[in-house]
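Aim 2, interim progress. The first record below pairs a target sequence with its C-alpha cells.
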Amino acid sequence: MMVLGSASQASAATVYPIAPGYQVNVRSGPGTNYAVVRVLTPGSQVRIYCQTTGTRETGPYGTSTIWDNIASGQYVSDAYVHTGSDGYVASRCA
C-alpha cells in the first residue's frame, strides 16, 4: 500500500476555484514583481502542483504570502484561490 504516493497524486489532481467575480493575474514567479503571463477569467478553476512563499497579497480570501504553482512558470496568489485553508494544501515547490 503506497499511502504517500497516493496522497501526492491526490493533491496534484485537486481542482480549486478562483474567487467568484475576479480576474486573476497569473505571474511568471511567486510575486507581484514578476511579469503577468496570462489572466484567469471569473469562474476559472486551477490545479495546484506546489506552493511557495512570495510577496504578500490581499484578496477575497485574506492576506497571504503563499503563491500557488498552477503550471510550469505560472503562479497565482493563494489569496484568490479557494483552498479552504489559510496554510499550505500542497507540497512546497523545490
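The second target in this work package is listed in the same format:
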Amino acid sequence: MLHEALPVGADPLPLALVFNMSHTTAIHYASIAQNLLDDQIEQTTDDEDA
C-alpha cells in the first residue's frame, strides 16, 4: 500500500478507494508516505549543498 501512496503524492483518497480502507488508515499510510517523500527531498538538497 505504501508503494501506491508514493506516486500519488501521499494523497489518502486514492488509497482509501483502491484498497477499500477506512479514511483513518488511509491518512496513516499517506502520512508515512509524506514523511518518506520529505526525507528524500532533504537528502537531495543536502547532496546538492555538499
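DSSP finds three helices and no strands in the chain. This observation will shape the mutagenesis plan for the next reporting period.
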